[in-house]
Amino acid sequence: MKNKVKKNQPRKTRKVKDTSAEYRWNLGLLYSSANDPQIKKDVVRFEGMVESFAKKYDTAAKTFLTDDSTLFEALTEYEKISANPALRAFLYFYYLRDIDASNTEASARLALLENRLTQSSNKLTFFVVHIGKMSIERQKKVLSDSKFSHFKVVLGRAFQDAKYMLSVPEEKILSLKGLPGHSMWVSANDRVLNMKMVKWQGKEIPFATALQTVPNLSKVSDRKKLADAIAVTLKSVASFSEAEINAIFTNKKIDDELRGYTFPYEATVLGYRNDPKVVDQLRKTVTEHVGISHAFYKLKARLLKQKQLGYFDRAAKIGTTKSTYPFELTMSKLAETFGNINPKYREILKGYMKNGQIDAFPRIGKRSGAYCSGSYGNPTFVMLNHTDDLHSFTVCGHELGHAIHTEFSLTQSPLYCDYSTAMAETASTLFETIAFQSIYDSLSDKEKTIALHDRINDDISTIFRQIACFNFELDLHTAIRTKGYISKEEMADIHNKNMSEYLGPTFKLTQDDGYFFVTWSHIRYFFYVYTYAFGMLVSKALLRRYKKDPSFWKNIEQFLYAGGKDSPENILKEIGIDIYSPEFFKEGLMEIADDIKELDRLTKKKVRT
């Protein structure tokens, strides 16, 4: 599901406990327990709203297609339903599962609930399908009528999507099979990995902790040793992951063919309301400038005093800073930094800390990584796996950027508060960069060199690595569509081929490195990784303009408040950003090239002295 989901009616919750020592989610903000009777009430309420809507409008006459008053009335009611009260129940069990992989009850309840809500939502399918198939003349008339101005964007999308819509019964079938054809497979793979332990220095550590530990090890021999231990774990799961990926990719192939999509990533790009031409230009530009990535890793090898790098070295540190960033200090610093731009940001962060809306630290059974999840009618929750280093500091800034974007987008109506994933990553990388800059100036010269290296490393990963992942996904889909089924060894080889292309000749990859596909969650959600590169390069453009003219922040906030009211291209155009320009993405890449030159200059100067 999308991890940016968004306020309904206030309800009684259990008393918010003091979480200052542990900073765990207070899911009492949603329900008192898994047995809270309000869960059933919310689900039943949603089902009732849908049933009433379908009974009223899913008639043989379907007068909403020809009568303006009935169409307006139906759209108004449809918008109320889109503020889905049952989503709170779904999120409750989703969060329970993510913080405790051993909670099989949460997984079971989630699966049952997803199926139940899907069946109910299917009763609304008729509305979208039939609206999309209005005559062209009728579509033009409705879109030009000021009475429908509030619904113009959602209607326009329905008309565009109609090309890929099937009949109502077929749409219901595709929706229902999404659970066994995709969601259950992916959650099972996550659950298996989240329960794994890795033996390291005589101790058993959670798999997620092991992944985070590798780049922080100063000795190449230690990085290799832990990477080898992780590879053993990945290979032990690989047979299941092989079946999982073949199943969900084949499921997508079936869907794409039925709907008439011409290439594997078309559904994702159109679903995120991006223009495919823009995404193709992004991918082409980044791929053409992969030499920037190669140059950085060549410099990195010199700084690490290694002739060649291993896959486990890609995020290795060239040194460690004395400064540490415990979670409370991190939140305090970010509240100050963001609050200096707009006091609203400070209040949002303080509220999250007070109410238990941040789950801060890694632990056994907790999902790895970080995300922000918020939706209309529900509190926003942020997941972190904070380890007190600078990377954790910037990750926190990234996720809180998502959170601020979410809170501002909630000013939109239920139909438009759900922003495009491409715009989500623009907001998050924007705040992440601001967070980094707030620390950079306070560092010593030695620490600045280390921090600049780490910043470039992250930029390379966000842009070049994610486009390489996009290409990896595309190759996987192509291979499975051509052969019908591919082995885990083939998946590993395809992984290494694409990673080698962005890493360059400085790296030597082994067959075992290819098994990283087992834990790479991005590829399970089909091509959304391009949004990281898109977001980073757009955020660089926003910051360039803000540095030249601080008053430009009002334009940035216009974008933060926009939610999903228009396409990313149009939202950016409104604030003076033209991403159709052939040079647009190249400008951001050249900034990274300049940073690499600066790092090279700083480190050579240090050597001479």
Explain this structure:
The chain has 609 residues and is mostly helical. It folds into 2 domains: 31-176, Oligopeptidase f, N-terminal domain (Butyryl-CoA Dehydrogenase, subunit A, domain 3, Up-down Bundle); 198-609, Neurolysin, domain 3 (Orthogonal Bundle), CATH 1.10.1370.30. It is built from 24 helices and 5 strands. A hairpin with a 2-residue loop joins strand 1 and strand 2 (203-206). The longest helix is centred in the middle third of the chain and has 40 residues, at 220-259.
Weakly predicted, low-confidence segments: 1-20
Give, in order, the helices and strands.
HHHHHHHHHEEHHHHHHHEEEHHHHHHHH
What is Rg? Answer: 24 Å
Task: Walk across the major sheet and give the strand order.
Answer: 3-5-4
Helix count equals 24
Strand content: under 5%
The helix content is 55-70%
Q: State the secondary-structure class.
A: mainly alpha
Distance from N terminus to C terminus (CA atoms, Å) equals 53 Å
Number of domains: 2
**Looking at the chains present, what oligomeric state does this protein adopt?**
single chain
What's the overall geometry?
Answer: globular
Biggest pleated-sheet summary: 3 strands, mixed
Looking at this protein, list some descriptive labels.
609 residues, mainly alpha, Butyryl-CoA Dehydrogenase, subunit A, domain 3, Neurolysin, domain 3, globular, disordered N terminus
Outline the secondary-structure elements.
Elements: H1 37-57, H2 68-82, H3 87-99, H4 104-121, H5 125-132, H6 136-144, H7 152-161, H8 168-176, H9 178-194, E1 197-200, E2 203-206, H10 207-213, H11 220-259, H12 266-271, H13 276-288, H14 291-304, H15 327-341, H16 343-355, E3 358-359, E4 371-375, E5 378-383, H17 390-409, H18 421-440, H19 445-483, H20 488-503, H21 530-548, H22 553-562, H23 568-574, H24 584-608
Parallel strand pairs: 3-5
Antiparallel strand pairs: 1-2, 4-5
